[in-house]
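hiii so my PI (J.) wants the whole complex modelled not just the main chain, which honestly fair. so below is everything: two entries, each one labled with what it is. i double checked the lines twice but i was tired so who knows lol
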Amino acid sequence: MLSFDGLVAVCVLYVAGLFGVAFWAEKRAGEGRARWLNSPLIYTLSLSIYTTAWTFYGAVGNAARSGLEFMTIYLGPTLVFVGWFWLLRKMVRIGRAQRITSVADMISSRYGKSGGLAALVTLLAVVGTTPYIALQLQSLTLAFGVFARPGALGAPDAGSTAIWVAGGLALFTIVFGTRSLDANERHPGLVSAIAAEAVVKLFAFLAVGAFVVWGVADGPADILARIETSPVAAWDAGGARWLGLTVLAAAAIVCLPRMFQVLVVENRDERHLATASWAFPLYLFCMCIFVVPIAVVGLAELPTDANPDLFVLTLPLHANQSGLALLAFLGGFSAATSMVIVAALAVSTMVSNHIIVPIWLAATRGERPITGDMARVALVARRLSIIGIVGLGYLYYDLSGGAEALSAIGLIAFLGVSQVLPALIGGIFWRGATRAGAAVGIGLGFGIWAWLLFLPNAAAGLLGTIPEGPGWLNPATPLGLTGTDPLLTAMVLSLGINTFAFVAVSLLSFPSPLERLMGAQFVHVYDHSPTPSAWRGSTGTANDLLVMAGRILGSERATALFEAAARDQGRQDGLPEPTPAMLELLERELAGSVGAATAHAMVGQITGGASVSVRDLIAVADETAQMMEYSSRLQAQSQELSQTAARLREANNKLREMSVQKDAFLSSVSHELRTPMTSIRAFSEILMQGEAMPGAERARFSRIIHDESLRLTRLLDDLLDLSVLESGQVTLNESTVQLVDVIDRAVHATSASAANRRLVVRRDRAAEEIELFTDADRLTQVFVNLISNAQKYCDAEVPTLEIIVRRRPGRIELEFSDNGTGIAPDQESLIFEKFARIASGMDATGAGLGLAISREIMARIGGALSYVPGQSGATFRIRLPARALRAA
Amino acid sequence: MSDADPRPRRGRSTFLERKTYRRARLEDAARLLPVLGLFLLLSPTAIRSTGGGSGLWLIYFMGVWLLLIVAAAVLSRALARTSQDQGQGGA
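here's the output for the full assembly
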């Protein structure tokens, strides 16, 4: 008989071997030489964590008590796997496409990356998993007890056994489960160890079974004969319970956090699922095939007070096969450890991603997530969660004192996690499922389950009494129903109301855009639709994103990711544009590490939360923007066109007016030339014919001829002057002069020639004391022209011209304004044209070249002459340049 | 001569059609298998005579179980093969 110490030593050796396998696998995987890891066999074996210590030992006990009913626990999963084409294939595809890290992550992703929903599912998972871990510890402690019972060292301290086991499991999970942050990177060491354990427990169970069938009994025929006479034959489970348990087990294998972990998260290749669809049922079949024989033989051979749950151990011991018993013990041990390890990993991922990290993010809101070391926080959170969950399991076990109630917790936990099922299936197959529906359904189902099953069971275990609720709330008789089977009653009520509420609220509520988008992505996952844009990047955040991604993924992976994204965008170097596609990719990568909701929040915090959820919305917005841009461009173009047309029309009008002006001028020049020529000819003819003309008369005629020829000369001078000025051949005779002198000269020159029309010139001589460096003669010519224009055209009764001189920074401005009616607006554009003479009732003697010449002169000496519209009279402004001020 | 051209095309298209058709029926079978399983596993609860020997029922359930496993294996392998063929055909 093996001593307790020996047993402990074997366990320690076994665990050391497990660590060895895990380390070796990690090393091989690190070197890239673990191709065997990528095989469907490993995947199938890792799924075997479904068979826990509870089923390893408990199946026989269950068979001994209720006959074939134990099979339902295996038949349900068999049906789910055989029907993988319906559900599992889609779940795995979605899990891979959306980088799902847990069942809570899947639900939260489907329903608009809802953090609240994820936390609810996480809570459910923790509540459902904790007693289950306690159950494993209890199984182990019971098994230890079997060995210690006859030993000389006395009964082992059950408490210390459990605490050592719990501690060891937590350590193993931390070492191999939280080595890297990315849950999607998978855990080669952990999976290898689980696979090894799967082989151990299958081998152990088959060995015990074979021993029982061929060692204790006389082969299969004998076993069949024994079954007929055994109490096991009294199989009277009702059809409802058979159906109910099958459905429950089928639901559980999809919803259990640990099953989701190995089934979806650790899946490396979708084709593995096709193999597992028959290989996993085969594994279950092998685990089952000897259950009834062991139960039958155990009931017959062992004393009636023997615990049927421990037949697997006690039968070999009874036959003095301690080696076989040790193997059976190790089988149970491996079943328990693998379950606790994967469950702790799965639930801790949820707790960390959906409870701790969001709280941490909220607490550090305002700071950017990159300022804190996200990876460290997430890893520490995950490790603490593992310790917390295993610790809770131990605490539950310790408080319940290993009571009988614990054994019932297995199915109760199944029902608890199955509350996720309606939302999960609905989310995958029904686009109309909404977050509100899922939340209400899961919440109600969770509440009913907790009230009817979990709390009474926990109370029975922890307090020793089952509390009675008031009236119809009494857990024993809910709604006044006195069902014979509390599990089935609770199942119908919780799952029924859950499903009903889920569907009803989904039908009545309206999903958010993100939910609708994710719904479409989940339901139509096979369509390979390109990921819709969920983000609109703001420029300048790529660097922040890189830093953040580096913190979480590791700088090497983050850099590689960003470089690949930049290459995809056609950039040879530098950071990629934070395009929606790039942000989507990054968010998914991050989601593999910290969960979808958290990754969404983190990316949102950096990009300023500009979450645009529906691709259609963006497409519509894009279209609208394009159309708006197009129409505004059209508008601009048409505006431009109409402006050009207006300018052309203006130019055309001007041309036409100028043409008219030219015609008019030509006729006026002809007239101007002909008038003096006519008088010159006439008077010279008189002088030629009339010899007897008095001297005074002759002198008068000669003066007229002289004056007329002077007028002709002046006209020709003007024309010549203008052409010289325009051709730029003029030479300026610049000198230093006083502005006041120039104006004096101009005023004197004009007052002499226009005696009949006295023009009052008002000046401010003090202001005119400015020294200029310019061509004084030309400037005088301009002033003379302006003053004589005022003399000619000012129609006031007392014509007055005001000359104002202003000094401006870098220039001088002179204004010549008279008190007449000014120039009509339609004439303003013409006054500076050559040959222009505005229509005026006044007698106009000029040829219309004065202003054109003046403007040319001003341009030559670097200044400008312009007409100031909108004044009371005609106002001209002369600007003298800084050059003229050089001496001042 | 003029009839010779369309014939191979028609033949090829029939061949492809048949392949796609086979694939679709395989998927149907894969989807219907759990229904068959559910029927086979649940119906005994309705017709089982009370007090009957559970030894035979045990053999029945184990047999159904094995049948399902074998059927699933055959189907999943056939599905994997056709999807590979399709992949090669498309590439």
